[in-house]
Design brief:
The complex is a heterodimer.
Chain A: H1 17-21, E1 28-33, E2 55-60, E3 63-72, E4 84-91, E5 98-103, E6 116-124, E7 127-134
Antiparallel strand pairs in A: 1-2, 3-4, 3-6, 4-5, 6-7
Chain B: E1 9-16, H1 27-42, E2 51-54, H2 70-76, E3 83-86, H3 95-105, E4 111-119, H4 120-124, H5 160-175, H6 179-182, H7 184-193, H8 207-212, E5 215-217, E6 220-221, E7 230-239, H9 240-243, E8 251-257, H10 277-286, E9 297-300, H11 305-314, H12 323-327, H13 346-350, H14 356-366, E10 381-387, E11 392-399
Helix pairs in contact in B: 10-11
Classes of the chains: A mainly beta, B alpha/beta.
């Protein structure tokens, strides 16, 4: 991306810091239940699968599938790159492990449901925003 | 069947303030106008009101989102209450009416004044409709976002137009739904609004106008998004026994839907072609022997046109994924069609009264007070539904 678009940034808290700072090491991280293996997002103190409190942060592969998208045309804030693609992606690791994100490094009009994508990070201040770009050859 | 306590509740009066764009009026005054009108409509006095219920309560989640809370109304009218509640975490805007039904059914109150007041048009000023987290129009340095908002706002998804557009796009993908089909929701609303003297937009709207209008967030264009207004709406919920003292035919609450079964999120709901209304709609039919075919008029939330389509599916007027073909051409949902829909123009043309407008209009139609827009055939059964995104509620009404 030539020029970074404006973004409202998240507050970093002890329960979300792993997610927003993982990009510094190039990792997309979520809490994972150490009992049953369930990935948990957004973070909660208890595994929704087995109610265990033994959760630890782990990295996922970062590959995902676009479940749906919308091309935003409205100028909620001034920005040079309209329309841009907002998408819901599902990580390969688990059904229902999803993020709202942006699909970048391709024309917004080329985004499709079912498209294979890979995480990339864009740093803003102390936050690494996880965005997704098309997997080469998909 | 479970004990359907809501049948002990009746709607006995409705009231509505002036409704308009940038009225520059005190939102509490609008609220009180609606409340007093509803009490008079029921044939009651202030002394009869012993319960008070509202959504979202006295909190300003975004500019103009709440015109008044419980405290201001109770004090301004010097009400003597046995029961009250106001809040935002409930089955949509009409959750506050469902709460009132339960309050009268369980004996906590006899006549509950329910209200929803909003003044987004004045509060948003002239800068256009804002997104969340960016202030109005994006000027100024916004603070950082936390809690649920952090999972959408940093990804430039500032508005429900984005969050719900994602669902609509998935519906288009799975079921072949088209913009021309979805257009029938705003076109039908505008046709009905032309017969509603209080509606904001009453000029004719054509398919060509719709398709030529600017895109907001695909597949939504400008006409798929409701219009912010200032205005307040109130309804009276009475116990069936107490309601006999009221001056109008009783409108019995036959059943309500208040379920929340999927994840309450804009991106984590298990089925991305529907939302919370799926389970609220299903629950409503689990509590009555009536069927979708019995409904004479439907007033279904249209904050975005797609939400009305989702409600049509959730309430079983058509099959899952079939709302596009169901509304195609618009005849079926017209005022003289088999399912008259959003007969006052809805939020898309009459203004974003945020849920309560649909219940108000259902009552107006059942009492035969629709004037020029009155549905023919003396309608006796109506459904009103509101919300639908992460929280949803609906009520089935019958005229006794």
């Amino acid at each position: 991306m030539s020029e970074k678009p404006f973004r409202v940034l998240p507050e970093l808290t002890e329960t979300t810091r792993h997610f927003w700072e993982g990009g510094r090491e190039g990792e997309l991280r979520f809490p994972r239940c150490q009992e049953c293996g369930t990935w948990v997002h957004p973070p909660t103190p208890i595994c929704p699968g087995c109610l265990s409190k033994d959760l630890a942060v782990e990295a996922v592969s970062g590959t995902a599938t676009v479940l749906t998208f919308t091309l935003n045309h409205q100028h909620w804030v001034p920005s040079p790159d309209h329309p841009y693609a907002i998408a819901i992606v599902e990580l390969d690791e688990q059904e229902g492990l999803r993020l709202t994100t942006n699909v970048v490094n391709c024309a917004a009009e080329d985004v499709r449901i079912g498209m294979r994508v890979q995480v990339v990070f864009d740093q803003y201040e102390d936050v690494w925003i996880p965005l997704f770009q098309p997997v080469e050859g998909s | 069947m479970t004990d359907v306590l809501e049948r002990k509740a009746c709607l006995t009066g409705v009231g509505q303030s002036q409704v308009g764009r940038r009225l520059m009026r005190d939102p509490l005054e609008l609220t009180l106008d609606a409340c007093i009108a509803a009490i008079e409509d029921a044939g009651l006095t202030l002394d009869d009101i012993d319960g008070l219920s509202t959504y979202p309560g006295g909190v300003d989640l975004s500019p103009g989102f709440s015109g008044a809370g419980i405290i201001q109304v109770q004090d301004a009218l010097r009400l003597e209450l046995n029961w009250f509640t106001g809040g935002v975490e409930m089955p949509g805007q009409l959750g506050s009416v469902i709460n009132a039904c339960m309050a009268v059914a369980t004996g906590l109150a006899r006549h509950v004044l329910c209200f929803r007041s909003i003044w987004e048009s004045t509060a948003q000023g002239t800068g256009g409709r804002g997104g969340f987290g960016v202030g109005n129009g994006g000027d100024g340095g916004p603070p950082r976002v936390g809690e649920e908002m952090q999972w959408t706002i940093p990804f430039r998804a500032y508005s429900p137009a984005n969050w719900i557009g994602l669902f609509a796009q998935r519906h288009f993908h799975e079921f072949g739904t088209t913009r021309e089909q979805m257009a029938q929701i705003p076109l039908n609303a505008r046709k009905n609004a032309q017969l509603n003297p209080k509606a904001i937009y009453r000029d004719p709207l054509t398919m060509d106008d719709y398709l030529a209008s600017r895109l907001i967030s695909t597949p939504f264009c400008l006409y798929d998004c409701d219009v912010p207004v200032d205005g307040a709406t109130a309804v009276i919920v009475s116990h069936a026994d107490a309601a006999k003292d009221c001056r109008k035919p009783l409108l019995q609450v036959e059943a309500v839907g208040s379920a929340l079964r999927g994840r309450p999120s804009w991106y984590l709901f298990d089925d991305l072609t529907t939302m919370a209304m799926r389970d609220a709609g299903k629950m409503l039919w689990e509590r009555t022997d009536l069927m979708p075919a019995d409904i004479d008029v439907a007033e279904l939330y249209d904050g975005f046109s797609f939400l009305t389509m989702s409600w049509l599916e959730a309430l079983g007027f058509c099959g899952k994924g079939e709302s596009g073909p169901f509304i195609e051409g618009g005849q079926r949902i017209a005022r003289d069609g088999e399912l008259p829909l959003n007969t006052d123009g809805g939020q898309l043309s009459a203004g974003r009264l945020h849920g309560y407008g649909f219940l108000h209009e259902a009552c107006v139609q059942l009492w035969g007070e629709g004037g020029e827009r009155q549905v023919p055939g003396d309608p006796a059964v109506a459904v009103a539904a509101a919300g639908g995104g992460t929280q949803a509620g609906c009520l089935l009404l019958t005229r006794g």
